[in-house]
Task: structure prediction
Amino acid sequence: MGKAVLIFVLGSVVLFTIINVNMSTRLGTSSENAINQFKETTAKNIANSVAEMLLSKVADSTAYRATSVQSMSNVFSDSGSAKYRVVDTTISSQSLIKIDVKSKYYRITSSATVYVTPSGYIPSPVKGAISTNNPVLTSGTLNVDGRDHDPNGNLLAGATGTLGIWSTNTLSQTGSSKIGGTSASGTNYAPDDPAHAGTTNASQPYPGGYPNNPDSLLGGTAKGFPAGTLKSIAQSGIGGSQYATNPNTLNHPFKGVTYVELPSGTPWISSNIDGTGILIIHNSSTNAIIKNENLGTFKGLIIADDIIHIHTTIIGAVIGLTPSPSEGNSIGNGSGDVLFSSQAIKDAIGSILVTSNHGFAKHRVSIINWFE
Amino acid sequence: MGQLLELIGASMIGALIMLIGLSLNMQINASSSEIFQSSYNQYSSITANQIIVYDFYKAGYRSTGNKLIQADSSIIKFQGDIDDNGNADTVSYYLGTKASLTATKNPNDMQLYRKINNQAASMVSIVTRFLLTYKDSLGNNLTYSSLTNPATRAKVRAIKVYVKCELPDAINRPYDPSVLFYNPVDWFRTIRPKNLF
Result:
């Protein structure tokens, strides 16, 4: 009897021990899973945080590069570290800056790769403060200045701008209108009547054909604007973008992309164009009309099928698409200013280039892709 | 007489000790089984979590146009270069039907599928719930009906994922045998894919 009890008790103890060890292992594994989740999240956060820090660095100085692997320790805690590189790369013919980060938290690793580009650019069809695919007539006291200005319209002395007016067709300067700009040799000329030779260029060919829609005008797919992108951005409302078929429904000031798709033959008259960004007046027939821009100052790029009578201030550039303007060619017949500003155009395009910008210092960069 | 009483008393005490020991063993066995199955369930949830997190963070990566192709409560289809080979892939997640899992006793479990481009769909995990909620840049929930519109889908900046995994068979709990307990593991995560902008 005594032996049997002893065997039973000892057997129970052994069984209990085995089960207890097993349970402890399982519980330990469960805890380990939770801890690993935390570590993985932390490692990912470290990678993204370091990428953000490097983005700020590139935003402050677009020339910044770290071609050899650099190390950063004590990130998040003394157990967090990262290694990174900042190098130039080319993807689909686009020159980009690649920020590559590998992070480590305890033994868990993570990575983040960010492709960025300095924001904004001047689209190649912007060949003057006003560029058109049709005859141009300036009259009244319209002032067109292709010299470079800051986004507030202040002249940047010594900076290289562009032509006052460029057209595939004829140019007539009448009334008291003045045209100025930067000649091909880089000399700046103040607006004058008549315009100084070399500040305008008329009857010019456009190799490959003049773009007939806003996306191709900004460079199309190669620049990140496949057909329909601008309209899609406007419809998404990103950064205050707006899309309308009736301009009366638009809110001011404009921001991002303001896309007005007017019905064929229905003009937007006495328009208020107060705002910034890219203002597009376009339809599939390339006959959307904006006429008598009477109110508001616009900073950025205006792309219009048919733009008539600029009576307000535009800082940036204007592009006309149609070869057959509805009212002949009168782009301005009263008082109005078109002041070329490379920065206003870059800001406008940069703000929507990939709709995610970074940096608040001297330069801003656009994030093209982020792999994590 | 005294010896007889002693024997009876000792037997009773011995029997009680044996009963206590057996009961303890049974309880330990039940707990061990529950912990083991819970651990298994946790693994199942973690696997689903890792696959979902890996894919969802790639949403929109190296893709243009409509990055989010379909967005519903338990179906999502998006574009993203998940293998980082330079070409955007079309990734979709969707649920199978409850009826398709007849081999398990859990009446609510379903297969969660993952499909890449035109490849055959593969199973991510067995789940009893897979709920997706879509948020705009301000963190506001976007209604599923509004997400049929591409313009609304373009506003999605964050995707909240809820995955619930349960055991295929109910755990037998000696202290509560009337309740079918499938030992659920709930997993929530709000994912903000950096390329959905």
